[in-house]
C-alpha cells in the first residue's frame, strides 16, 4: 500500500519560485476573464497604467443645514422651556395673589364679625342698662329727682329748685302732710302730700306710671307739676298757694 503523500511528515514548504509561478498563473487567468468581458466592437488595447480612483466631491452645505437645524431645534426647546418656566411662575404668582386675597377677605370678614359682635354686646348692655330700673334715695332729694325723670318722659316742665322751693313752703318736706283747716278741708277735700294737692286735682292730673296714692311722694310731685304746667306754665312760676 503506497504511503500517504499528504501526511504531516512529508509536507514541503513552498519555495520562492513556486510562489512566483502561482502569481503568474493568477494574473493570466484574470487577463483572460477581462478579455472575454470586452464587447466584440470594443478595443482590446491594454495599458499598463493603473486606474486612478475618481475624485470624491464633498459639500459642506448639507452639514451647515444640519447644524442650523439642530441649532434651531435647541433654540426652540430652550424657548419652550422658558415659556413653561414663565407659565409656572405666572401660575405661582396668580395662586399666591389669590391666596393673599382670600386671606385678606377672611381677615376682613373676621374683623366685621367681631365689630358686629362688639356692637351687639354694646347694644345689649345699653338695653340692659336702660331696662334696669334706676334707683333713687328715699328722701326729698331722691323724690324730686325721680319726679323730674318721669316729668321729662311726659314733657312736663319744671326744675329741681322750683319744685323744692314750693315743697318746703307747702309741707316742709313731709309727704304725709295734710291741711285740715282751709276752705278745701271745710269742703271735705283737704290738701295732701308734699305739694298739698286736693284729691280731685290729683286724680285729674295724675301722670301714668306713678302711684295712685296721693301720699306717694313721686306721684304727688308729678301730678302737682302737671297741674301747675297747665295753669302757670311751670311749677317754677308758682310762688304762693296755687
TrEMBL record:
Region (Disordered): 107-133
Biased composition (Basic and acidic residues): 107-130
Record bears the keyword Transmembrane: yes
Transmembrane segments: 20-38
Top-level taxon of origin: Bacteria
Keywords: Membrane, Transmembrane, Transmembrane helix
Keyword DNA repair found: no
InterPro entries registered for this protein in UniProt: Lysozyme-like_dom_sf, Transglycosylase_SLT_dom_1
Residue intervals of the Transglycosylase SLT domain: 167-239
Protein name: Transglycosylase SLT domain-containing protein
Amino acid at each position: 500500500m503506497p504511503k500517504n503523500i499528504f501526511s504531516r511528515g512529508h509536507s514541503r514548504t513552498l519555495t520562492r519560485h513556486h510562489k512566483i509561478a502561482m502569481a503568474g498563473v493568477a494574473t493570466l487567468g484574470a487577463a483572460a476573464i477581462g478579455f472575454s468581458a470586452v464587447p466584440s466592437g470594443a478595443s482590446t488595447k491594454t495599458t499598463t497604467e493603473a486606474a486612478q480612483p475618481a475624485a470624491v466631491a464633498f459639500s459642506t452645505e448639507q452639514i451647515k443645514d444640519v447644524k442650523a437645524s439642530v441649532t434651531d431645534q435647541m433654540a426652540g426647546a430652550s424657548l419652550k422651556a422658558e415659556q413653561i418656566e414663565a407659565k409656572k411662575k405666572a401660575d405661582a404668582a396668580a395662586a399666591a395673589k389669590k391666596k393673599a386675597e382670600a386671606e385678606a377677605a377672611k381677615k376682613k370678614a373676621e374683623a366685621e364679625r367681631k365689630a358686629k359682635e362688639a356692637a351687639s354686646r354694646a347694644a345689649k348692655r345699653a338695653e340692659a342698662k336702660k331696662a334696669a330700673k334706676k334707683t333713687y334715695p328715699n328722701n326729698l332729694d331722691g323724690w324730686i329727682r325721680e319726679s323730674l325723670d318721669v316729668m321729662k318722659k311726659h314733657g312736663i316742665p319744671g326744675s329741681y329748685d322750683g319744685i323744692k322751693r314750693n315743697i318746703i313752703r307747702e309741707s316742709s318736706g313731709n309727704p304725709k302732710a295734710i291741711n285740715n283747716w282751709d276752705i278745701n278741708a271745710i269742703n271735705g277735700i283737704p290738701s295732701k302730700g308734699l305739694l298739698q294737692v286736693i284729691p280731685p286735682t290729683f286724680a285729674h292730673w295724675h301722670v301714668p306710671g306713678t302711684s295712685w296714692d296721693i301720699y306717694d311722694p313721686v306721684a304727688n310731685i308729678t301730678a302737682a307739676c302737671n297741674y301747675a304746667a297747665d295753669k302757670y306754665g311751670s311749677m317754677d312760676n308758682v310762688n304762693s298757694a296755687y
